[in-house]
Amino acid sequence: MSTCSVSKGCFVFKPSPKKRKLSQKTVNYFRERNNASEDTDVRFVTCQSLWNQIKLETEQIQEDLNKQLFDNLVSFLRQSHSEFQEKTTEWTCRMKSREIPTAALVLGVNVTDHDLTFRSLSEVLQNNITPYIALLEAKDCPGIKNLMQKLMGQLMNCYIDVDSLEDEDHMQVSQNKIRCSMTSIISWYQNVTKKTDSETPSKKRTSSSRHWQSPPVVVIFKDMESFTTKVLQDFIVISSQHIHELPLVLVFGIATSPMIIHSLLPHSVSSLLCIELFQSLSCKEHLSTIIDKLLLTAQFPFKLGEKVLQVLINIFLYHDFSVQNFIKGFQLCIVEHFYSQPLSVLCCPLVDAKKRVNSLSHDQCENIRRLPSFRRYVENQASEKQILLLTADNFLKEITQKLLEDLYVYHENYVSVLRCLHVFTSSLPKYPLGKQIRELHCACLENRVWETEEYESSLQLARMLNKSDLVTMLQQCVEIFVSSSGKEFDKTIEKLKEFLTQFQELEVAEAFQEQDGSVSAQKELQKKTDLYHLQKTLLELKESRRSKKLTKFEMLRFEVVDYVDSLVRTYLVPADHKTLHEIMYFNTASVLRGHLNAAPRVALHTALNNPYCYLKNQALKSDGGNISNKAPDICIVYKLHLECGRLINLVDWLEAFSTVVTAVEGPNTDAASSDQVDDIIHARFIRAVSELELLGFIKPSKQKTDHVARLTWGGC
Amino acid sequence: MPNLEHPAYPAATLLHLESLVPCRESQVSMLLSIFGERQQFSFPSIFIYGHTSSGKTYVMQTLLNTLQLPHVFVNCVEYFTSRLLLEEILIQLQSCSSETEQTSRVPCDNFNDFVRLFKQAVVSRELQDQTLYIVLDRAEQLREMEANILPAFLRLQELTDRNVTVVLLSEIVWELFRPNTGCFEPLTLYFPDYSIGHLQKILSQNHPPEYSADFYAAYINILLGVFYMVCRDLKELQHLAALNFSKYCEPVVRGEANERDTRKLWKNIEPHLKKAMQTVYLREISSSQWERLQRDDGEPGQLKGLSAHTHVELPYYSKFLLIAAYLASYNPVRTDKRFFLKHHGKIRKTNFMKKHEKTSNHLLGPKPFPLDRLLAILYSIVDNRVAPTANIFSQITSLVTLQLLSVVGHNDQLDGPRYKCTVSLDFIRAIARTVNFDIIKYLYDFL
What we know:
CATH topology of the domain at 60-160 and 176-191 and 208-281 in chain A: Rossmann fold
Domain Origin recognition complex subunit 3 N-terminal (chain A): 1-346
Mean pLDDT of chain A: 80
Low-confidence stretches of chain A: 17-22, 160-176, 199-210
Largest interface: A-B, 69 and 62 residues
Strand content of chain A: 5-15%
Distance between the termini of chain A: 51 Å
Protein name (chain A): Origin recognition complex subunit 3
Number of domains of chain B: 3
Keywords (chain A): DNA replication, DNA-binding, Nucleus, Phosphoprotein
Number of strands of chain A: 10
Oligomer: heterodimer
Domain Origin recognition complex subunit 3 insertion (chain A): 357-589
CATH superfamily of the domain at 60-160 and 176-191 and 208-281 in chain A: P-loop containing nucleotide triphosphate hydrolases
Domain Origin recognition complex subunit 3 winged helix C-terminal (chain A): 601-713
């Protein structure tokens, strides 16, 4: 087995995870809580397959989004050492100092996503440019020595990857002896390139089809900001001296702004570099695409409820900007949904769902009857039907199939109409319903969007749109509906097309009218030269304008807006008004929040302040402010310390503690013990205080004797 | 009449040498006289210093190569540990002399071993009749190695009892090298900066073959007129000259001007060079991008430089954390009450501040603040309630790794960590603008 280490040592090789075994375990975990009648196995399999689909989809999206960036980078790398390949002897080339080609890759502050980007980048480079890639991280390179070691280790390992396996042992031996300096890298590089030259022609063709004779060596600094100035400077100075022998290309992964290069490197060093800037797509756009492709589609049966989606988006926007975390959160939602909702077995493509409905057990049918949305549905039915629904399983299954079908149709329509509405709202001034489609989506999920004020104002604004905008929007809507899979939209498309033709007719008609109108008005004005008459006519004109009947265009505009409104009212019903929505929608935001946005300090405070919350001991149930002596010592000490200032006197604290502890036994204890603290209580106090210290609430202070300093403030 | 004269070397070689080292003739003749004849012992150690690109390395290299003196040339930055450095010297000693097969590498851990191995190497080569030169470039790095390395190199001749001279090249003066314990004083030699005349002479020497020397000299003259004020680095100037020459030639190539039409050529190139000074010289855009622009005749305006991309997009709470950190760094602690409490009353700045606070905090730089203060300010500047979740705390750490904040004191101090905000006022104002926060109103300096 090989390692990337250049030093001798003992290495742990973990066995590659056995997929089967692992999944078996997870199934068991799934089964643990629920009884077997609730189709746990099927649910687990469905969950897995759904997640695999989604994972593939997200990877595809990521790849597509990075394609542009990677293409640019690859072409830059191709060009960077073209001079090295040609070995030009032109005057300018001779006179110019050889700079190290450097790509400054600005990736944004979502550092957690960078790993994936770098991994796919190195894959792309490996396939297109060069097998010699080294990825360096700041934490591995505190000094230039470590950097060189890491660099050599990675480069020489990748050499092994390219070459056949028989050389491996030989390399392993020599690796330990090799001195980590630039000269050894150069001699290694010459060796490697020479070897590929002298290889058998058949083998050579395969290698040269992908790489050139002397492929560049790419060194990627993953987190430029964290590298120390000295290490970077030394490395650049060293490698610039050998750029003639070793075609090196640097890639700086930058999280903040490219200005960091100038602040890290002095001019004398940065003048050795030939820096070109590459900017990756912003993470917000990435998220929009992910939401577009994962949530706003009828492709996946699983849906997120409004609150859950809001939690995920908030974490993204407020905290980390990390798309990977968003996807992880989404995954958690899937697992949680399939784990906790027994009926999630029906959360699969419609064809399968119908089949599964037929084979539902009686318990599962009862589960359906218990769903709030289903109960609401039952209440609205005729009484005979109600009885049938509640007693006959077969009838229930039939109805369920129908309802599921309804739900699928609803999804398909929902997405198209939502996009259509977004076309309108996204071009309104001030964006009353939000600029992004995700905001609109949340608004629609939350409650009836047409009852909100924002919707009202956006309709108002839409009624003032000009013609050209309106026409382009209508065209966009037509495109959306044409490309959608919903079957009910033939009429809608027709209607929209009709509007479009009407607009065109209007244009022709208006051209005529305008000429007439303006000419006649002009004439009238010219006729009446008298001041009094002129005033009168002007007033009349004004009056007529105010109470004027709407022009044809305005009429049509109203019609269009009303039509869109009617579409919204029919199709954008919030999901939780739909029967059986619980099967598809995951809506327990509190669970998600607990998992993803943990509040350790708050939890600690609750545990110490209100131990009943975790211990569930009836004796601890307190009615508020008073301190029970039944609580664990640390809780008592904690509560007492909350009342103190920044510095706490230990003696006072101990006295208060002993008062609380002995409070209940108070009446029957004798007076002698009151001024002399019991040894046991003293010991308990000391233990509790040191526990508090361990938890980081207090620390010993040197400012005053017998005092400790408080490290926290406020309630939590 | 040649400047360089030395009985030991043929006049032709010296003449050739002289042509290779323009404007450094006096230094070279000085060195030659110190070196003496091949077999003569020279001074044990020579220390040469001078500003960046004043020709130290180049002169030494050409001198040793043209006269074919046995030498070892090592860059101390490249061989960053003493072990690497010593081994490299031994390897070069072995390889450059005898054309025999590569001997196996001998480990050399300390100077004692080095002296022993060095003696062996010299004996095996039978080099005693010639002075061996060991040149240590960027010798300031030696100070960071073990304490005995530098003094030992200075008296290597004495330690090995061989005919060897160590030459140290550095950009800083000898006084900064001298160890506390004292050492053998080397002979110091100063290489002065090239004057504008020197630069002109050296740069004009390498004219392109297609054009006459006069034409190129005129170009160099213009180039120096623009760049001499900001840059005296010969290498950099040469690079810039090569980059922009094609633009200079453009009118000639197109036939609009002949080679003597200096005025016309000047008018053509001058604004171009000024633009180059603002962009490519500062590495705002790369040389290859510059060349591409030149070829396509594009405006440099359309290509944004590195410093144009100052905007950093941050998560919502990170922005507020950064703003809070900035306020904590630049406001005195006592003023927090005035800024963040609702009923603080009117406090006038004049009678409010102490004497030492009259100087602007922005001139003094950021001050460290504890974590608690940061969070307290954060809670009072964010409109809605912020839960102290793990995410908030990890965001602070992220800001530290992004170098927007920095930890004061030890990294591993868990109780009461202290931070500093390292961003500029302009940066924080841009951030504050995106969240509609008027930061100026909250800064004590702008009260």
